[in-house]
Amino acid sequence: MSWKDHTYYLKESIKEAEAAVKHNNMPFGAILVDQAGNIILRQENIEITESDCTGHAETQLMVQASKKYDKKILKECTLYTTVEPCAMCSGAIYWGNVGRVVFGLSEKKLLKITGNDEQNPTLDLPCRKVFQSGQKDIEVIGPIPELKTELSRFYKDFFGN
User: Fold this and answer.
1) What's the rounded Cα separation, in Å, for the pair 155 and 97?
2) What DSSP string runs through 6-26?
3) What is the Cα–Cα distance from 46 to 85, expressed in whole angstroms?
């Protein structure tokens, strides 16, 4: 799969992040793409409106995915997300058995944008490190340089920095 393809799908995850903002949630979104390139699930962040600390887009996407699809199917899927998955979301992806993760902006870059904003207390634990601590081979691609400026602006606008 080319960078161009990844950019297309990441822009779809950005649409979910924009929807999250419209619904008064944090600006994060994720999609799940099957082996044939079909978007099979979409999820925006629901943490604030659902009063659910596990309402991150990736974790909620994995809740849906694990109920709907067999782990063998999920192993062939790619999860696209606006920002590198946090430790909680990485755990959900790991246990859900998704085979590939592609993210637009790194957690470290997001931290530089948000600083000590109480709405986004980031953990300095890269998803690659979480996945490498397990027994599954999960491919990680990201950050995607073509979207760095667009995503940085989006998060700076949201967090007022």
Assistant:
1) 29
2) HHHHHHHHHHHHHHHHHTTS-
3) 15
What predicted TM-score, i.e. pTM, was given to this entire model? 0.94
Q: pLDDT (tens digit, 9 = 90+) per residue, 126-140?
A: 999 999 999 999 999
| 106, amino acid identity | S
The active-site residue out of 58, 76, 84, 107 is 58
DSSP 83: E
Q: Is 146 a catalytic residue?
A: no
* Nearest-angstrom CA–CA distance, 75 and 71: 6
CB-based contact 114:83 (threshold 8 Å) = no
Secondary structure percentages of the chain, helix, strand, coil, to 5: 45, 15, 35
Q: State pLDDT tens for residues 59-94.
A: 999 999 999 999 999 999 999 999 999 999 999 999
Parallel/antiparallel/unpaired status of strands 78-83 and 139-141: unpaired
Distances (CA, A) of 13 to 109, 117, 120, 159: 18, 23, 19, 19
